[in-house]
Structure formats: C-alpha cells, structure tokens
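Predict the holo structure. Ligand: flavin-adenine dinucleotide.
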Amino acid sequence: MMTDLSKKTEVLIVGAGPTGLALACQLIRYGIEFVIIDKKETTTPYSKAIGVQARTLEIYEQIGLADKLVDLGWKAGKARMIVGGEKRGELDFTDIGKGLSDYPFVLLVEQGLHEKLVYDFITSNGKDVRWQTELESFTQDDSGVTAKIKNSNGEIENIEAKFLVGCDGSKSVVRHGLGLTFEGMTFERMFYVADVVIDWEYKNDALMVFLMKSNLLAFFPMVGNNTWRIVGTFPEEFSKDEGDVLYEEIEEQIKRDAELKLDITKVNWFSTYKVHTRHVNKFSKGRCFMAGDSAHIHTPAGAQGMNTGIQDGYNLAWKLAMVLRGVATATILETYNEERLENAENLLKTTDRFFNLVASPEPVLTYLRMHVFPYIAGVAFSIDAVKKFVFPRISQIAINYRHSSLSQHAGDDGVDVKAGDRLPYFLVEGRSVFDMLREPKFHLLTFVDGKDEGKSEDLSESFDAIVDRQTVPLYPHVAELFGVDKTFNVLLRPDNYIAMISHESSLAPIQDYLKGCL
Ligand SMILES: Cc1cc2nc3c(=O)[nH]c(=O)nc-3n(C[C@H](O)[C@H](O)[C@H](O)COP(=O)(O)OP(=O)(O)OC[C@H]3O[C@@H](n4cnc5c(N)ncnc54)[C@H](O)[C@@H]3O)c2cc1C
C-alpha cells in the first residue's frame, strides 16, 4: 500500500525552539489544528537563554506553567559590581517589580529545562513536534501554503496549511523563501558563554558584574552548587573565527578580566558567537509569518530575545484563531506586522544602547561605568521611582501597541492608561486581575463605582460568544491607576492589551469597535 505523504492542517509551525513551542501552546488554547516541525532530534539540552521576563510568566500563567517554571529556576535578586578584582558596590533588586506584576523579578532558568516544560505541555495535550523534519521549500497562493518537508526517514512530504509561521531561527529558510530583508549590523567582538562550576570566595546568590574598560563580563548564578553562567567578550583585536576558539582561551580571558582568584572545576557547556543586531523589513507576506529570531536578533543585553519571540507568538495566535474560525477577516492579520515590527525596531535600539553602556570603550562611558555607577547604583535601585521605571522596561510589561490600528483612543483622552497598553496589574479581592482573564476571548471589564451598577445590556449574539464579560468594583487603587472615578468599560483583546476604554453606559461603542476590527 502507498503511504500518503501529504497532510492538511490549519497552521504549519516551522521550528520548535522557544518561539515555535510557545506558539503551539497558544494554538492549543484556541483549539487550532497545527503541525510543528523541527530538524533537531528534540528540545535543546543547552542552557542558552536563561533570563525569563515577567510578561512571559504572565503568558505562561494562563496555561498553568508559570509557577512550574519558577520552581525550576532562580529569582535574580542581587548584583555585585566588581572593579579591578574588588567588590565596589551591590544592587538589591529583590521584588523590583512589586505591585506591577505577580512575577516581580527576572527569573534565571536554563533554556533546556524551559523548553522541556513547554514541550511537555504540548504532549500532554495530545500533540507532538515532528522532530528530525526539515522544511525544504514552500509556495503560497490565495487559499493556503504548500510546504515541502523532508521527514525523519528522509522522505519528502507535502504539508498543506492555511498559514505558515517561520519560527526557524536567525538563519530562517522561511525568511529567505519570502525574500524578506534582514538589515542591520554585526558586532566585531566575539562573545563567549560558558556554564561552569567555580571554586572561589563568592556564593552563587548574586549576579556578578565585572566593570572594566572595554570587555564585558558577567556571572549569573544558576541552580546547583557553585554553578554559574559566564558571558563575556574577547577584546576587539581577537581575530579567531567562532569555531576555532578553544575553551582554554575562554578561561584565560575570564581570569584576566575578572582579576579574581577563581578555580573553574567543571565546564558543563561553552560556546562562542558573533552578535548581530538585525530585523526583518516585514513580519509577514501573504499567508506566511515570521516570529522570534527569524525576525529579530540583537545583543544579549537585557535578556530580551527569547522573551520577544514568545510574545510574537502570543500576539499572532489569537489573530490567526479569529480568522480561522471565521470570526474576523484576514485584515486583522496585518496588525501583527504593525505591532511586532514597531516592537522589534524599539527593541534593537534599546538593546544597542544598553550594550554600549555596559561595554563601550568610549572614555566617558568607561569612566562612568567603572568609577561612578558602582557607587550610585545601589542607592538608585533602592528608590521606588527608579524601580518603577526600570522594571516595566526590562520585564516587557511596558510594551504597548498604542500606535496600532487596533487601539481606539476616543475614550482614553485624559485617562492615564491608554488603548494599546497591557492591562495594568492590580488586585481584585486579593488576587491578580489576570486570574480573571484566562479565557481565550476578548474581555469586557465593567468597573462599577457603586452608584451606577453598569447597564445589564446584552452584546449582540455574534459577539456574545467571543467576549467574556466581568464586573469589577471600582476600587480606589483602580480609580487611581486609570485616573477615572466613575463607572467605565474597558475592552481587552484576547492577549489582554486594551482595545478601548469607554465612559458610555451603553455598549454601542464596544459593539462598533468589534464590528470595525473583526
Ligand atoms: C548565549 C545566549 C544567551 C541568551 N540569553 C537570553 C536570555 O537570557 N533571555 C532571552 O530572552 N534571550 C536570550 N538569548 C536569545 C535566545 O536564545 C533566542 O532569542 C531564542 O532562542 C530564539 O528562539 P527561537 O525559537 O526564535 O529560535 P531558535 O531557538 O533558534 O529555534 C529555531 C528552531 O528552528 C529549527 N529550524 C531551523 N531551520 C529549520 C528548518 N528548515 N526546518 C525545521 N526546523 C528548522 C531549529 O532546529 C531550531 O530548533 C540568548 C542567546 C544566546 C546565544
């Protein structure tokens, strides 16, 4: 009997790194059929991206994975600054984001453990990744995409999908196939990363940041006795190619730059790489979309890359689901490029700036880094206003879509929170508001002031099925947050970003919004 080597599905995900896996989880939430392929044998065994941001944990919380991931890692709480082998200052950022998220910290957890947890969620939902399966080429027309893949037996198969998402990393076959550009630059410096066990005077209870003239060096504590992730750069004049660097050269560089007595007793993993800062000119073309490193790469400063990929998927999944279920027209898919391209452009600018601050050989910056920052940073980080400025930016909770065509601003004039913002975090009867917002639907929150109970008007039947409605007392802290003291409505998109704010008691503006955007 002939094997049928073709398959139809709704979404083909190419690549099962953190981005592809996270997108698959979202499609499971929306009940969308998908096939996910990866040319590797299984999830990565390496520690790679270790910084997990609060916004990622908020997304995982909706599928019950956040606390499990937190249990696998370490909450970054302190940083010691070392200059010339001497401790010159200490930063305490324990619960730096208190009151801003249920996850007010940066979590450090190995990418291998992280991917495995997400992968287990996928398999526990009856799905699996097709490992050792590689995308070779694809074509698309008005009705779908046909992908030619090589399966684990070396056979060529066709997969027909309504949509294709390229989560296939920085060398993306999908990006090349679509003819998208990936403009930007490559840093001259060679980076290294090493996961090691160290015998020295310091406990692995704080991040160690070594401030020096031009190189970058930081040690991140990892789970396990005396286990550390080291990230650093070789000097500009170091001219070897990535594959030619020996571990011994990395260790020599670490010891030279740290200027401390330390004995590296075990090396679990090491790698060298060149850092690029680039993004695609467009996040989609026809029925194909780009997400994660295939769409944007940048310096590791700020631990943003993997988290951004996960959020690309979060942004795209609900839009694909609405279109595939016939709830929205394909026009809504254009907002994926609108929103995530702007985000990638901002991300590259901020990570470049941050990187310059920590590694630039420019004399003024060097002086500030080595002789001013260590002394003032500890005090600065004890100031609430500084924490409230820094945490939202690092944790990605400040990312907004204010410029998106999905953000309707008519009702946010004079209101502090704007359409396009992530719903700010607050407590409802002692629990995070996000606990109420897990359903994969739009959410209509009516904040009632006690005088006006909010009209019990119904939404039209077609919207009723896709909008989850909730009434919340207008607590003083919520009134302060929004800067509104009377009953009002907030419509949230399924990804919990504000679509619009309405002060009218009638639901007509909400219905009009939904008609317009869907
Ligand atoms: C040392 C280091 C430290 C980092 N630290 C952080 C951090 O702390 N926080 C953070 O947010 N980010 C960090 N990053 C960045 C982060 O690792 C990446 O942004 C992230 O892995 C991107 O995930 P992705 O799924 O988009 O791509 P990838 O992880 O590259 O996954 C792409 C997948 O696609 C598969 N694939 C490729 N081509 C094909 C094909 N043709 N067919 C089928 N499958 C294919 C690959 O096998 C791979 O599994 C770090 C990176 C490095 C190198």
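The mean pLDDT is 90. Residues 14-20, 37-40, 48-51, 134-135, 167-169, 173, 193, 273, 292-293, 300, 303-307, 309 surround flavin-adenine dinucleotide (CB under 6 Å).
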